[in-house]
Amino acid sequence: MSQSDRGLRRLAAGTLLVAFQGTEAPDWVLRELEHGLGGVTLFGFNVADHGQVRELTTALRGAGEPVISLDEEGGDVTRLAYHVGSPYPGNAALGAVDDPGLTRSVYRAIAAELASCGINLDMAPSADVNTEADNPVIGTRSFGADAALVARHTVAAVEGLQSLRVAACVKHFPGHGATRVDSHLAIPVVDVGLDVLRERELAPFRAAVTAGAKSVMTAHVAVPAVTGDSPATLSGAALTGLLRGELGFDGVVVTDALDMHAITRSVGLAGGAVLTLAAGADLLCLGPLPVYDDVQAIIAEIVSAVREGRLAGERLEEAAARVAALREWFGGDREMPAERNVVGLHAARRAVRLSGVPEPLVEPLVVEVDTPPTIAVGDVPWGVGPWLPEAEVVRVEPSAADASALLAKAAGRSLVVVVKDAHRHPASRDLVSALVTARPDTTVIEMGLPVWRPDSAAYIATYGAARANAQAAVELLQTA
Length: 480
What we know:
Blueprint: H1 3-13, E1 16-18, H2 27-34, E2 39-42, H3 50-63, E3 67-70, H4 91-97, H5 100-116, E4 121-122, H6 147-162, E5 167-173, H7 194-199, H8 202-210, E6 215-218, H9 224-227, H10 236-246, E7 252-254, H11 261-264, H12 269-279, E8 284-285, H13 292-307, H14 313-330, H15 343-351, E9 353-355, E10 365-369, E11 392-396, H16 403-409, E12 415-419, H17 426-438, E13 443-446, E14 458-461, H18 467-479
Parallel strand pairs: 1-2, 1-8, 2-3, 3-4, 4-5, 5-6, 6-7, 10-11, 10-12, 12-13, 13-14
Antiparallel strand pairs: 9-14
Helix pairs in contact: 1-13, 2-3, 4-15, 5-6, 6-8, 12-13, 15-18, 16-17
């Protein structure tokens, strides 16, 4: 391979954030980092505990200068606490409190944990304005449905993360909040005019750019007024025209995971890599599915695209320069907090809301109504069981649950029903309604968005299913 060929391959590899299975870095990842690989994205399956993550990131840094990223949003979407649940409430809870200073503190605490583990880019916060209550993928990941509220908390989150030199990656540009389709599965459409887009979806991104956000993540969402039928990730009009031109963003553009069906089932993984680079992306998050053969094929396709004139070589050089500037920023002075921050539980306590008066607990039966996890969240534990050790906890599938049997089991005992996003699941609503009708003294705890609630029964809304949310709900239940 000639020197020019090696240089071109290095530029191509430098645009990729790869993933791998297991808690140790495979040899191929370390080898590619030595040859210019851009970095890695870590997932729950890469995490055992903080000490192991530190060892992993130290090994990665020993091979190169990687961008080391993950999704640590607090709330439902966590990677460091994937196996136990996050100690921080998510954006919906912070939006319900509406104290930007609290949001800044929570994200600074998250940044401290990330920095201590060697993570330098957090794929957070979600700046989506969640105007569609039935949104299957955003929901509690959003600060709320009001653009101004989302904007001020997005800025606070960016400031909190970046105060400890963990780069924020504000997502999902130009907005995933008004959708009813999960872009992991298909291409959602936000069919609004430019005036609505600017006033609603773009407001938090504009504020984040002004606040100095280091990176922005693209959405695999079509906005016909801007992108036509294409997702924004593949659209020069969205990434170069709107984000770079109109909003004036000069940081690193990161793609959402390219292994999502919105890309793989439309233009393919390697084809999508070339198209998003041409559109203006700088770092390509490949997601958890591609293996080393896929990574090699993507690099080869990017190199071929440059040689064949389908992708300008200058685009790769521009991406490399932006990522190099980000790496330089990572290396600046950082003042780490002296002690562990307990702001997560404090924030969850401020967010929890109670309607009605719960009955005192007597040999409680807790019925947790199961909700299928989204792909973004994954199989993160949730529920109140750890905080109610005296309770009998039953986890049920709503469509298969026998309300009569549950009521018989609860006879002479307190009944607590825990749900998550009941408004999105008719079977959950039917089961809760049946239990509450027979037992008006039931307490219902909603750990998703509190859009639907039964006509009677005491009702606790947590605005998220993180570990901190659950503890705050139980404390309120026990003291009310």
